[in-house]
Amino acid sequence: MTTEKTAVLIPDERIIDKIFLIRDQKVMLDRDLAELYGLDTKVLKQQVRRNLNRFPDDFMFELTKEEFENWRSQFVTSNSDRMGLRYSPMVFTEHGVLMLSSVLNSKKAIAVNIQIMRIFSRIRQILTDNLSLKLEIEEIKKKVQNQDKNIELVFSYLDELIAKQEEQPPRKRIGYKPDH
User: Fold this and answer.
1) How far is Cα 170 from Cα 80, in angstroms, rounded to an integer?
2) What is residue 52's predicted lDDT score, i.e. its pLDDT?
3) pLDDT tens digits, residue range 92-140?
4) Contact indicator for 5, 111 with CB cutoff of 8 Å
5) Would you say 33 and 108 are in contact if contact means Cβ atoms under 8 Å apart?
6) What Å distances lie between residue 45 and 30, 48, 51, 62, 166, CA to CA?
7) How many of the other CB atoms lie within 10 Å of CB of 123?
8) Longest Cα–Cα distance in the chain
């Protein structure tokens, strides 16, 4: 059993490089998933089309023509990369990738899916950690700004006191006056 897992294990970096942010969602393209599963993109798409009721819009969508052209211009640099990109790809969110495991029943697809889900979970955890760190930093900034305002207030009071003292006429000395 251990050898089966290591035989299909894909370096995490290879999977992470295939996760894109489209429509403010972390997604993977059909052709990248097919490659990871060891399938033709055509086979993956057929399985999805046969089970469309399992893939609502928040699980899978096709890129609009504009999104597709924008994506191609940003990520596709060579003609060899354009192979298989004549049509807008199906794009799968995290839930869509999870649903693929019920449609693609090969051992490799299941093992790769488990690995992809773990990576999505790690990414979510990293984003959550970053968000809480950002919130803590913002709170510290607010405290510092408040302290800066308090220090400025103290200095403005001191300036007012100095100004008031300078405005007052010199006081007459009282007490022992030496004879001159």
Assistant:
1) 91
2) 92
3) 998 999 888 888 877 888 888 888 888 888 888 887 777 777 777 778 7
4) yes
5) no
6) 7, 5, 10, 11, 85
7) 14
8) 115
Relative to beta strand 60-62, strand 25-29 is unpaired
Q: Rounded to whole angstroms, what are the CA distances from 135 to 24, 138, 146, 147, 149?
A: 20, 5, 17, 18, 21
Confidence of residue 85 (pLDDT cuts 50, 70, 90): low
27 beta partners: 20, 93
pLDDT digits (tens, 9 = 90+) for 32-79: 999 988 889 999 999 999 999 999 999 999 888 888 777 776 665 544
- Residue 21 forms beta bridges with which residues? 26
Burial 39-52 (b: 16+ CB within 10 A, else e): bebeebbebbeeee
CB neighbours of 75 closer than 8 A, spacing ≥ 6? 20
